[in-house]
């Protein structure tokens, strides 16, 4: 049985840093309107919901993305969340 390199890569999937960059790129490209979780699932259709959640949580913990809202209608934006009260000049 012969295994082709392309088949192995396709079945193995992309690596974690690359997947995180794809998610970040989609969120950044949609910075004005925000990105919904369903859109992120379309970006990486071969990953499970839990795998995408783990990538999002890691990006969020790194301060690279933040969300507004906590349900399925939450929107994701690039960068750290900013407090609306008293956040000016606190960096």
Task: Outline the structure in words.
This protein has 91 residues and is mostly helical. It has a two-stranded antiparallel sheet with strand order 1-2.
**Helix content percent band:** 40-55%
Strands ordered across the widest β-sheet: 1-2
> First CA to last CA: what distance?
59 Å
Judged by helices, strands and strand pairing, the structural class is: mainly alpha
Order of helices and strands: HHHHEE
Radius of gyration: 16 Å
Task: Write down the overall geometry.
Answer: globular
- Global mean pLDDT: 83
SSE arrangement:
Layout: H1 5-12, H2 16-29, H3 37-43, H4 49-61, E1 65-68, E2 75-78
Antiparallel strand pairs: 1-2
Properties at a glance:
single chain, 91 residues, mainly alpha, two-stranded antiparallel ribbon, 46% helix
Briefly say what this structure is.
46% of the residues lie in helices and 9% in strands. With 91 residues, it is mostly helical.
């Amino acid at each position: 049985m012969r295994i082709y390199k392309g088949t192995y890569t396709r079945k193995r999937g992309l690596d974690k840093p690359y997947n995180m960059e794809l998610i970040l790129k989609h969120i950044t490209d949609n910075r004005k309107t925000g990105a919904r979780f369903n859109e992120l699932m379309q970006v990486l259709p071969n990953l499970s919901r839990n795998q995408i959640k783990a990538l999002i949580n890691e990006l969020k913990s790194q301060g690279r993305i933040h969300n507004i809202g906590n349900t399925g209608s939450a929107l994701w934006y690039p960068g750290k969340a900013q407090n609306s009260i008293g956040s000016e000049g606190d960096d």
